TrEMBL record:
Name of protein: NAD(P)-binding protein
NmrA-like domain ranges (all copies): 4-77
GO cellular component, one term: cytoplasm
Species this protein is from: Didymosphaeria variabile
One GO MF term: aldehyde dehydrogenase (NAD+) activity
């Protein structure tokens, strides 16, 4: 029997790319996606993918799909802001005997809430092999922690019944492979905010704050490998002992000022700005940028914090390493997409 995969977020940047990679690598899989709105070309592009209409409030649909599926993969919005209740689907999905691969993000590692860390290099690089215990006990106000906490608990309590893995990508670049959103968020927001810094690329403090990155195609490839591990009932899908299988996906890291300069050079080449040299700005300027109603400090997180991770588990299990161009080589694609060119 064909393995049954249930996927949420298939119109998103990550989820759309994951769906595309899964269908391409495994046309034999029986895939069902839950959509709020079906993109026009969806059925003609993916004639063998089943659609259920619903959202994260559709508790019955989620429970039914989780009962039916061998592997459930969430690729929807998680809940970034601290102190917000996590989405319900994890609760709906957990009691069912299946493999659950949940999308999180390395925002969970970010030091955005420590003012002394902003704009300077933080030496801490997290490993998904040796820092599992740390990941299991990150503070409650870390981004995504509200949802991850449930999953760490569930892995410890119900690990025999439901196998859990967490995909934790860093910042992502490159053109998405799906039919919905094909742009990542960082470059688009940064270019919007260049205007607020007087049409100059910008940095805070020393600008040496450093973040990990992955190309969307490398991430989608890793997703396929982890789903394959679930389908093959590979014990490595779930983590050692009481832990979920935790997957960082980073393939490289860059400091903020280098990324700013590279974006500035492309913006200058495109005639959008005159001076590509990054300018130092204060926190009062950063705090006016990239507003999100649920996360007022989003800009500190994006532009001034560190978030460093190494995909050691994927490298060990699957020989995972970058196949796509690096961020600075591939950046023009993202800048042009953000400019609508
Ligand atoms: N992009 C990055 O650089 C990055 C890096 C690391 C982690 N992440 C995390 O990954 C998550 C997804 O990122 P993304 O860039 O793929 O986002 P995206 O392009 O905005 O996609 C979000 C997906 O979630 C769906 N969705 C949102 N609310 C929903 C709801 N209530 N019920 C059902 N579906 C819902 C959207 O459906 P509609 O099309 O119907 O709106 C869409 O398919 C984010 O939470 C982010 O924290 C992102």
């Amino acid at each position: 029997m064909a393995p049954k995969i249930f996927l949420t977020g298939a119109t998103g940047y990550i989820g759309g790319s994951v769906l595309h990679a899964l269908v391409t690598a495994h046309p034999e899989y029986d895939i069902t996606v839950m959509l709020r709105k079906t993109p026009e070309a969806f059925t003609s592009t993916y004639p063998n993918v089943n659609i259920v209409q619903g959202d994260y409030d559709s508790a019955e649909i989620l429970a039914e799909q989780a009962r039916r599926a061998d592997v459930v993969t969430t690729a929807t919005q998680t809940t970034p802001p601290p102190h917000r209740p996590p989405h319900r689907p994890h609760l709906n999905l957990l009691p069912n005997p299946t493999h659950l691969l949940h999308l999180s993000g390395t925002g969970i590692l970010s030091d955005w809430s420590s003012p002394s860390r902003l704009g300077v290099l933080n030496p801490k690089i997290y490993s998904d092999l040796t820092d599992l215990q740390t990941m299991a006990s990150l503070p409650d106000d870390a981004l995504h922690r509200n949802t991850e906490k449930i999953l760490f608990h569930a892995a410890a309590e119900h690990g025999e019944k439901v196998k859990i893995a967490i995909m934790c990508p860093p910042d992502i670049y490159g053109r998405g492979l799906g039919l919905g959103n094909t742009q990542s968020v960082f470059v688009r927001l940064y270019i919007d905010d260049v205007q607020k810094a007087g049409n100059r690329p910008f940095y805070y403090n020393e600008g040496t704050n450093t973040r990990s990155w992955v190309h969307i195609e490398d991430l989608a490839r890793l997703y396929v490998r982890v789903v394959e591990a679930a389908v093959g009932k590979d014990k490595g899908f779930a983590g050692p002992g009481e832990y979920p299988g935790y997957y960082f996906a980073a393939t490289q890291e860059h400091n903020h000022i280098d990324v700013s300069r590279a974006i500035g050079n492309i913006l200058k080449k495109e005639g959008v700005i005159e001076d590509p040299e990054p300018v130092r700005v204060g926190l009062e300027v950063i705090d006016q940028m990239a507003k999100h109603p649920l996360f007022p400090m989003l800009a500190r997180y994006l532009y001034a914090s560190n978030s460093r991770s190494r995909a050691e588990r994927a490298e060990k299990m699957f020989g995972y390493k970058a196949a796509a161009p690096g961020l600075l080589e591939g950046l023009e694609t993202d800048v042009l997409a953000a400019l609508g060119r």
